[in-house]
Amino acid sequence: xxxxxxxxxxxxxxxxxxxxxxxxxxxxxxxxxxxxxxxxxxxxxxxxxxxxxxxxxxxxxxxxxxxxxxxxxxxxxxxxxxxxxxxxxxxxxxxxxxxxxxxxxxxxxxxxxxxxxxxxxxxxxxxxxxxxxxxxxxxxxxxxxxxxxxxxxxxxxxxxxxxxxxxxxxxxxxxxxxxxxxxxxxxxxxxxxxxxxxxxxxxxxxxxxxxxxxxxxxxxxxxxxxxxxxxxxxxxxxxxxxxxxxxxxxxxxxxxxxxxxxxxxxxxxxxxxxxxxxxxxxxxxxxxxxxxxxxxxxxxxxxxxxxxxxxxxxxxxxxxxxxxxxxxxxxxxxxxxxxxxxxxxxxxxxxxxxxxxxxxx
Length: 361
Known about the structure:
Blueprint: E1 12-18, H1 25-29, E2 36-40, H2 42-57, E3 64-67, H3 74-87, E4 91-96, H4 98-111, E5 115-119, E6 131-135, E7 141-146, E8 151-157, H5 158-162, H6 166-183, H7 198-224, H8 230-250, H9 258-269, H10 279-293, H11 300-309, H12 326-334, H13 344-359
Parallel strand pairs: 1-8, 2-3, 2-4, 4-5, 5-8
Antiparallel strand pairs: 6-7
Helix pairs in contact: 3-4, 6-7, 6-8, 6-10, 7-8, 9-10, 9-12, 10-13
């Protein structure tokens, strides 16, 4: 498999995590500028907006808060970039989930400004990674934009993250688990011919996988009791930061990333039907496919237990994908980078795994 990224962009230049750290935002903005344009989701701003604005207005005379409710799309990102440049804003601040953090990065890219992301959930590592997954305004996937520079800063307020619904926490867990499950398919310990950095990505993703499978249930119980324990802190770091580092070190190489390709394909064919579901939830369904393809179907027991316990989707029909779309998924994924040049043996193996996923009841 080719290396898709020539450079190592590990993630972000400065990472802060702790209780009430959103109150540090004003001081942190002054590292990059004086006049921020804050872009947030509706729910995120209702949760964090007051503390955030109080911190900013103490330090910055000029600022503006914009609510974004759409997709991460180029059209709106360019509009806000032009607004920022026209009004003299010199820092972009994203506040919200994965879509908002990706969108804020796109706005900063078009405006040529530094970016600070403040995630309000741990559902993905999007706040940390130097890329944005892009969509049309109506929700169809159009590809990923890889930036030549890293995110300037990520501020994680653990009190805010700990208050997220369990489905968001689990979505982040599934997204993080995917790194090891996808990387290890083609990786062999002691092998040769692997790109520089993949050994480290494999080792780190294995550590994350073991930690997450051991601690997830306990952390869910801790957060339900409003306890931000050391385990909770560690899993927040794992799903937001460590997963982003792993992604940067792997550089998208030597993976059969079926879990994420399933996600992209579902968004492509069913943008309206899949809109209510978040990235990690859909990647979680894709992991069931990936484990089967890897010959490790037994590893789905833990995933399915968590999915069913917390009423998360685990069947393709749960996220609005039609049972009649099997051939569409098969053809699109077999002709993608997830399969080696439409290799006949791999496609047949993939067909069996896809059928397993379609047959889940």
